[in-house]
């Protein structure tokens, strides 16, 4: 067990497929509390990532670096640098660990540092901070992913575009939390990690 170039690429291609399948839904969530581009931003980025990874890198560190660079240069918005940071931190950590829980923990620390958000600010940090400990404890389930994403609905946004709406951001799922939910779902479905 542990991360390999092959199962890492499987995970990311599965994430990419989920983004593609749900890009309209993700953008609709963003239309309610943002500028309506989240699904399209992520789709553009993940298509470029899958294209890039069709030439297989030699190490997991190289895979993570290529994902990070590609996301930073193609996604844009708030989510591009944040997902980019997550994968860059996983690249760094992968020099000494192939444990997915430890890698995701490093990614979460990077996202928080980069965006300044804390749990309950209605950002992707909400989903990551609930689910990373579940991955570490080997207890991640589909139900936990769904409930972490759904729990962002009743929060008032404190960071990002949705925070401009104040109380009116309540009642809508956070788009970046939903896309992050797909990343964890894709992980759950990937054999051997
Ligand atoms: P933009 O808001 O620039 O159009 P996107 O629509 O692609 O970018 O991404 C919006 C998502 O980014 C939000 O739903 C939220 O999850 C996430 N996000 C925004 N700001 C922050 C932040 N400071 N920290 C963590 N996540 C954030
Ligand atoms: Mg947006
Ligand atoms: Mg935007």
UniProtKB/TrEMBL annotation:
SUPFAM superfamilies: DhaL-like. Its EC number is 2.7.1.121. Residues 6-189 form the DhaL domain. Keywords: Glycerol metabolism, Kinase, Transferase. One of its GO terms (cellular component) is cytosol. Pathway: Polyol metabolism; glycerol degradation. GO terms for molecular function: glycerone kinase activity; phosphoenolpyruvate-glycerone phosphotransferase activity. GO terms for biological process: glycerol catabolic process. SMART domains: Dak2. InterPro entries: DhaK_L_YcgS, DhaL_dom, DhaL_dom_sf, Dihydroxyacetone_Kinase. It holds the Pfam family Dak2. It catalyses: dihydroxyacetone + phosphoenolpyruvate = dihydroxyacetone phosphate + pyruvate. Coiled coil: none annotated. Homodimer. The dihydroxyacetone kinase complex is composed of a homodimer of DhaM, a homodimer of DhaK and the subunit DhaL. PANTHER family: TRIOKINASE/FMN CYCLASE, TRIOKINASE_FMN CYCLASE. ADP-binding subunit of the dihydroxyacetone kinase, which is responsible for the phosphoenolpyruvate (PEP)-dependent phosphorylation of dihydroxyacetone. DhaL-ADP is converted to DhaL-ATP via a phosphoryl group transfer from DhaM and transmits it to dihydroxyacetone binds to DhaK. This is phosphoenolpyruvate--glycerone phosphotransferase. It comes from Lactobacillus kimbladii.
